[in-house]
Design a protein that fits this description.
The protein is an alpha/beta fold. The protein is built from 6 helices and 9 strands. It has a 9-stranded mixed beta sheet with strand order 3-4-5-2-1-6-7-9-8. Bound molecules: S-adenosyl-L-homocysteine.
Length: 219
Amino acid sequence: MQLDYWLEKWKTGDTKFHMADVNEFLVQHYENLAPSTFFVPLCGKTLDMLWLATRGHKVVGVELSQIACDAFFSENKLSYEIKAVDGFILYFNESIQIWCGDIFQLPEHAYKDVNFIYDRAALFALPLDLRLQYVEKLKSIAAQSKKLQMLLLSIEYQQNLVQGPPFSLSNHDINNYYHDVFEIKQQSMPCGYISFLKQNPKFSEVDVIDSVYLLDCKS
Ligand code: SAH
């Protein structure tokens, strides 16, 4: 999948993945957490970053599209500055940084203070070849942080029925990708939970299972 695919989505406003509300699983898991530095890969303009920042957390996002980065700060009426750093445009204020560019080029110093990764629609946004590169990138972040945790949201459906993205991920996939570096604990889902994907017409006839995992770095 080319980077142009995503840039075009933002250009044409085809961003069904963007949620109008803060993610309920993020709220559930991190409501009373001590201030931390969150890494939000493939962040889009998610309000989850704002929710974290208003609770005293630092946020480091990375997003390809400048439209998304501009929209995040302007739609939320946040002041910010921008500067060029290592081939990225860095958008920043006192609590939020968004590195605008390709995650695979993100320099190490961008995530040096990170101790949480929040992955919503990042792993499952990527096709297999990029997903494997992405997993390696996250493991390299985990390698330079003590006690890193990750909240990972995932979806599973019969991949032959619908073309991704979003792509289907099984428990087995998650385990396969991360078990060498993380302890993986699958979290229970609220009774009767209906997947966010059901709002997307292409999934109306497809069974979708959402899963939430909490991962603890073994080192
Ligand atoms: N996590 C966000 C957005 C998910 S959609 C949310 O929950 O709303 C995936 C996002 O990843 C898109 O905004 C896309 O522009 C961005 N993206 C895709 N490939 C990328 C890459 N290689 N580097 C950085 N961002 C990328």
